[in-house]
Amino acid sequence: MASIIILFAVLALLVCALIFKLLSRSGGHTENADGLRIEQARRMQASADRTTYSAATVHNMPPSLRGGPKG
To answer: How far apart are CA 21 and CA 69, in angstroms?
Structure first.
């Protein structure tokens, strides 16, 4: 019984440590010019990817016109 309590205590401690680590990270933007350029390029690439791989583009028609699964 004591080993189960110890196991749960260690897991709870690990979870708390991870939550603290994630919350303490700075969520701000990069401050130097290189970092800003990298962030801008990645945002632009993500936008292009969302357009390129959208359902209408991949299937050549909107999902509402597909007629459901075939089988």
So the answer is: 44
* Local confidence pLDDT in tens for the 71 residues of the chain: 899 999 999 999 999 999 998 887 766 666 788 888 988 999 999 998 888 887 776 777 655 555 555 54
Give the position of tokens 């791989």.
53
Q: CA–CA separation, 64 vs 42, rounded Å?
A: 31
Angle, alpha carbons 23-28-32 (nearest 5°): 140
- Say how far apart CA 4 and CA 11 lie, in whole Å: 11
Tell me if the pTM is above 0.85.
Answer: no
Supply the DSSP string of 2-58, one letter for each residue.
Answer: HHHHHHHHHHHHHHHHHHHHHHHS--SPP-SHHHHHHHHHHHHHHHHHHHHTSHHHH
